[in-house]
Design brief:
Layout (H helix, E strand, L loop, with lengths): L8 H13 L3 H10 L4 H8 L3 H8 L6 H19 L27
Helix pairs in contact: 1-5, 2-5, 3-4
Length: 109
Amino acid sequence: MKNLPVQPTEQLLDQVRARRLLPAPERRRTIRKQAGVSLRAMARALGVSHTAIRWWESGATPHPKHRRAYAELLRELHRIAGDPETREPDLGRAQDSRDGYSDGNDIAA
């Protein structure tokens, strides 16, 4: 019977912990987009290609040397994007006269 190389216990545990740090693949893209970060910006921050980020968001597992940094970046982006103090205001609706300002030239709605 051949002896298989045994991975040190701590290294194995670190790999398992790092995998568990990552959110589900479908959440990875959502977190990045909610934070307003492009694929290329995230890739530059992690020192990988934008294609790697796309793969990771589709379910591929990052290489161990990138996994922890990717998980930590996603966690921080999620915290920032979910914190009302750090979110940009919603500018999706333009102000109009019904918002309290009147210059005397408003047309009745």
